[in-house]
């Protein structure tokens, strides 16, 4: 829309006597975004206005207000800023008040457009991901979870700066760091986390998973999971392991594979615990530093040693003998008793030594048991046989054996469509637990049969049947048919029932609804009727007898319509049959006497009868021309 074009009904040109609407620059699921001029600060801004058709939905209005509130509390160069909010008054066109927000105007392309253009390499992907992660670190530090990270919500400015936007379904975490108080499934299926797919509560690590999906698509140009419906994609997020980026797209550095595997972990505790940590790992990988996930080391037990026997002895302090009234001589003769304290320290040392030995033994046992448990966990197991099992049963069996499953499809002449054909590694192979096993599902035989029941079906029904058979419709031609209705199928090329490769094109031959009239003249009536009423002609016949001397009686000498003419099915053909005309009735000749007396006015004078008059023609001469008597005429 230009400045001179009318704005939508109910939308004023000037909002709050400050923001002048110029043009429509975007349209989302619940609001329109307009370019406007802020006349107070003399700058371009983006004004996001809730559309009238959604303003009556309280949930949409709350979401719109929540976005404004969430972003208003955030101030970061990688987040599109919100400058102002308000509501447009109700009008005769809009019964509801329309909330709006005034945002930072950003020129550039969405990340979705950048990916579609295909101009993304590893360094650009890491740069963009770093910008998104910086924005999320700031958001998470302010207890705001975005919950809808996807390419359409990331802007890349003309100068290459990254801006995160659309906090419409963001949720604020409380100060005790509990998760969002909703179990509703929100977000976009190809980018939301397993906990979102399960409808569980989410936290900042859900955003980190979504950023991992974003980076995956940046380097491979496709999301980690795709499917025919959001439900199927969600199912894969919960139960399947994505292929490594280097396996999906040639040229992707395998150094990114372990980082992607960690950020897309199904369990939150196994992922990066901050968006910044994820971005730092990517930057290190870009500089050639491989990522190694820190595994928990087995616990070691240290025993407190309180002292040795030598220390106890040297630490013993001899006490002087107590004073006594006895004579010293008698005292010297008494056998001195060993000090009780010395005996007590020696027993304690022995006890502690025994305890230490027992503790060392227990610690050694636990360490050895931990090593054995880890070895058992990593011990290879055999891949089970899944041949001709249904896809669901095969998945369940492989998962019961601790394997991760990646489904592939292939043609098979031996296995029914939808059943398992094989695994990779093959059945019986010894593979480490929790490894990824490719499960191959049959798409049926690559040789498909053209359905024989296509004949006498409508063109639409025939097209649907061919698609269900895994075939494509090629050229469409038309032929005459006495029995197949107009535009219904007569046959195909290749012929009905023949075997062709899956995906091949099959030409359709449709009926014109017309019949070519055969030649039936010079046949007998029986032959003509049999010819016209045959199944491959199917025409009606009517014989019409016509009196004529030109043909022998009973001859079929004319047909209408004529031979080789195309007529509608079941048309009437009229055939003319020669019939001899009736013989003329004989007339009675008068006798000579009657002829003489028949004209009483005849003259008796023979000369009068013999003499020709001037008006009577002269008898012909020898040349066949009449002789003339009398004077010659002027023309002679």
Structure, described:
- The structure is a single chain.
- This protein has about 625 residues and is of the alpha+beta class.
- It has five domains: about 15-105, Phosphorylase Kinase, domain 1; about 110-285, Transferase(Phosphotransferase), domain 1 (Orthogonal Bundle); about 380-440, Trypsin Inhibitor V, Chain A (2-Layer Sandwich), CATH 3.30.10.20; about 445-510, 2-Layer Sandwich (Trypsin Inhibitor V, Chain A), CATH 3.30.10; about 515-580, Trypsin Inhibitor V, Chain A (2-Layer Sandwich), CATH 3.30.10.
- The protein has 18 helices and 26 strands.
- The chain has a six-stranded antiparallel beta sheet with strand order 1-2-3-4-6-5.
- A hairpin with a 3-residue loop joins strand 2 (about 20-25) and strand 3.
- Helix 4 packs antiparallel against helix 6 (about 205-220) and helix 4 packs antiparallel against helix 10 (about 275-285).
- The chain is flat, with a radius of gyration of 53 Å.
- The two termini are about 105 Å apart.
- The model is unreliable at about 1-5, about 170-185, about 295-345 and about 590-635 (pLDDT under 50).
């Amino acid at each position: 829309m230009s400045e001179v074009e009318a704005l939508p009904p109910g939308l004023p040109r000037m909002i709050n006597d400050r923001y002048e609407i110029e043009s429509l620059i975007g349209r989302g699921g619940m609001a329109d975004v307009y370019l406007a001029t802020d006349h107070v600060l003399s700058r371009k801004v983006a004004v996001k206005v809730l559309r009238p058709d959604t303003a009556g939905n309280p949930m949409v209005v709350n979401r719109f207000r929540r976005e404004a509130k969430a972003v208003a509390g955030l101030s970061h160069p990688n987040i599109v800023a919100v400058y102002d909010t308000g509501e447009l008054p109700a009008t005769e066109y809009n019964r509801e008040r329309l909330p709006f927000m005034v945002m930072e105007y950003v020129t550039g392309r969405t990340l979705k457009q950048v990916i579609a253009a295909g101009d993304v390499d590893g360094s650009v992907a890491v740069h963009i991901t770093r910008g998104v992660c910086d924005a999320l670190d700031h958001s998470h530090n302010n207890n705001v979870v975005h919950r809808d990270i996807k390419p359409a919500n990331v802007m890349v400015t003309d100068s290459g700066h990254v801006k995160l936007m659309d906090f419409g379904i963001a949720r604020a975490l409380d100060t005790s760091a509990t998760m969002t108080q909703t179990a509703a499934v929100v977000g976009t299926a190809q980018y939301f986390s397993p906990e979102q797919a399960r409808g569980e509560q989410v936290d900042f690590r859900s955003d980190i998973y979504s950023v991992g999906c974003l980076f995956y698509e940046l380097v491979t140009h496709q999301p980690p999971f795709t499917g025919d419906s959001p439900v199927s994609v969600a199912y894969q997020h919960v139960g399947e392991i994505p292929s490594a980026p280097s396996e999906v797209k040639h040229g992707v550095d395998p150094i990114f594979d372990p980082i992607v595997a960690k950020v897309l972990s199904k369990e939150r505790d196994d992922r990066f615990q901050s968006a910044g940590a994820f971005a730092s790992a990517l930057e290190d990988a870009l500089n050639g530093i491989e990522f190694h996930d820190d595994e928990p080391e087995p616990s070691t037990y240290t025993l407190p040693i309180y002292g040795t026997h030598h220390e106890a002895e040297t630490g013993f302090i001899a006490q002087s003998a107590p004073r006594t009234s006895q004579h010293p001589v008698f005292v010297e003769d008494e056998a001195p008793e060993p000090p009780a304290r010395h005996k007590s320290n020696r027993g304690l040392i022995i006890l502690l030594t025994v305890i230490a030995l027992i503790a060392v033994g227990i610690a050694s046992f636990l360490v050895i048991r931990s090593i054995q448990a880890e070895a058992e966990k990593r011990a290879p197991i055999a891949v089970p046989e899944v041949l001709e099992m249904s896809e669901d049963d095969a998945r369940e069996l492989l998962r019961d054996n601790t394997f991760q499953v990646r489904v592939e499809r292939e043609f098979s002449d031996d296995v029914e469509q939808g059943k398992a054909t094989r695994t990779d590694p093959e059945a019986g192979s010894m593979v480490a637990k929790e490894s990824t096993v490719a499960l191959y599902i049959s798409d049926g035989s690559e040789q498909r049969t053209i359905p024989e029941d296509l004949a006498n079906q409508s063109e639409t029904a025939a097209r649907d049947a061919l698609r269900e058979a895994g075939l494509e419709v090629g050229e469409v031609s038309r032929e005459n048919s006495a029995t197949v209705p107009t535009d219904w199928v007569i046959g195909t090329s290749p012929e009905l029932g023949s075997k062709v490769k899956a995906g091949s094109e099959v030409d359709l031959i449709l009926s014109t609804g017309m019949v070519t009239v055969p030649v039936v003249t010079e046949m007998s009536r029986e032959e003509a009727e049999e010819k016209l009423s045959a199944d491959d002609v199917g025409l009606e016949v009517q014989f019409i007898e016509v009196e004529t001397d030109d043909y022998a009686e009973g001859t079929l000498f004319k047909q209408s319509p004529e031979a080789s003419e195309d007529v509608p099915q079941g048309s009437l053909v009229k055939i003319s049959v020669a019939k001899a005309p009736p013989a003329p009735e004989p007339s009675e000749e008068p006798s000579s006497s009657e002829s003489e007396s028949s004209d009483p006015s005849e003259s008796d004078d023979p000369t009068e009868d013999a003499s020709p008059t001037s008006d009577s023609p002269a008898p012909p001469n020898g040349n066949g021309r009449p002789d003339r008597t009398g004077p010659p005429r002027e023309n002679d």
